[in-house]
Each structure stands twice: as structure tokens, then as C-alpha cells.
Amino acid sequence: MNYSLTTTEPRVDAFTSEVIRSAVVAITAEMKTNLQRTAYNQIIYEAEDFTVGLFDAEGNTISIGLGLPMFIRGLSDAIKAKLEFWGKENIEPGDILLTRAAT
Question: What is the pLDDT of residues 47-85, one digit of tens each?
Fold first, then answer.
């Protein structure tokens, strides 16, 4: 049998995968902590009435920083709606798009 030592398929070992996963989770945890520390609203910093997330260019969820669980499901849909409204070509690095829930 002829076994090749090279492959055209990218492979990520379990160690690298866990390091990347942990880094992504840490990013969203830091986002949550920063929002809580800088909030002037008691509902944000005490009741955690928010959530934060990290998304890819298509609006798919990469990681969620847990806050209020009811916000998690709609967050990806909100990001996708923002991308559709503004158009990916009109969003540049450093742009911040905010969404607030209807009251």
C-alpha cells in the first residue's frame, strides 16, 4: 500500500481546536465584562439584561457571551438583518452597529 504523508485537506488537531475555542469564548466573556463595567444603567450591570456575541461575515454565530437567555435566539437574526439592510460592502472595520429591543 502507498500511504502519502501529505494531504490536501486542512486538519486541525484537538489541542489547536481547543485553544481556538477557548480564545473565542474568552473574547465574548471580555465583551460582556466590558459592557457591564462601562454601563451607566443598573439593569445592564446588575440584572445582565443584555447579551453579546461574535459573528462571522455572514451573520452566523461563532460565540455568545451569556447574558439574558431570551436574547440569544434572535441575536443572529438581528445581525443578518443589519447585514441585509446596510450591505456587507458598506460596513468597514471599526464600524459599530447597535440594536436595541423594541419596548
Answer: 778 888 888 889 898 988 876 667 777 788 888 999 999
pLDDT band at 30 (very low <50, low <70, confident <90, very high): very high
Cβ atoms of residues 51 and 75 within 8 Å: yes
DSSP 10-72: ----HHHHHHHHHHHHHHHHHHHHHHHHH---HHHHTT----EEEE-TTS-EEEEE-S-GGGH
Compute the C-alpha angle 55/64/81, nearest 5°: 45
How buried is residue 66: exposed, middle or buried, by Cβ count under 10 Å (0-12/13-18/19+)? middle
Count CA within 13 A, CB hemisphere, residue 102. Answer: 2
Q: Taken in order 75, 54, 57, 39, is the CA torsion positive or negative?
A: positive
Domain boundaries, the chain: 14-90
Whether the model pTM is above 0.90: no
